[in-house]
Amino acid sequence: MTDSGTLAGQVVAVAADHAGVTLKDALADDLRAAGAEVVDLGTRGTESVDYPDYGAAMAEAIAAGRAPAGVLVCGTGIGISIAANRNPAVRAARCANTTDARLARQHNDANVLALGARTTGVEVAADCVRVFLTTAFEGGRHQRRVDKLAGR
After folding, report:
1. Which residues is 70 bridged to in the sheet?
2. Is 75 in contact with 85 (CB distance < 8 Å)?
3. What is the 3-state secondary structure (H, E, C) of the chain?
4. Which residue among 48, 64, 97, 151 is least crowded, i.e. fewest CB within 10 A of its CB?
5. Known catalytic residues?
6. Domains delineated in the chain
7. Which residues of the chain have pLDDT under 50?
């Protein structure tokens, strides 16, 4: 994640449950069009699936280094973010607007953005993704807090 304003060359994992798959696919298309490499962790259709499985898949991808950042989508963004945050390598932030997305990166060094397909329109979601992925962590006074989240 950079503050250069470009997504070209970034590797971004995406995952969603059945409620979020349409938004996930639209966001993945936007990311590819912007030059990002997308690691799609599923789901692929609208048949009912369990969001914890996709939150865990994202967490595993982040922890293993397959992608430094990710985007999760479920109906509200809440359940899937809770699932991802069970892994200490993940700092998933459920965001509803670009201010949330910017501050999640600047102050919390969030590495996963969670969105609600039933609560956030596609344009707002796309703006959140762009801001999230192009905003740098400020460090400084925020670093000690992030270290505490990591148990350091």
Report:
1. 13, 112
2. no
3. CCCCCCCCCCEEEEEECCCCHHHHHHHHHHHHHCCCEEEECCCCCCCCCCHHHHHHHHHHHHHHCCCCEEEEEECCCHHHHHHHCCCCCCCEEECCCHHHHHHHHHHHCCCEEEEECCCCCHHHHHHHHHHHHHCCCCCCHHHHHHHHHCCC
4. 151
5. 74, 107
6. 11-149 (3.40.1400.10)
7. 2-3
Question: In angstroms, how far apart are the furthest CA atoms of the chain?
Answer: 45
- Nearby residues of 106 by Cβ (< 8 Å), 6 or more positions away: 135, 136, 137, 138, 142
| Alpha-carbon span 46 to 1, nearest angstrom | 30
| pLDDT value, residue 150 | 81
**Residue pLDDT, tens place only, 97-115:** 999 999 999 999 999 999 9
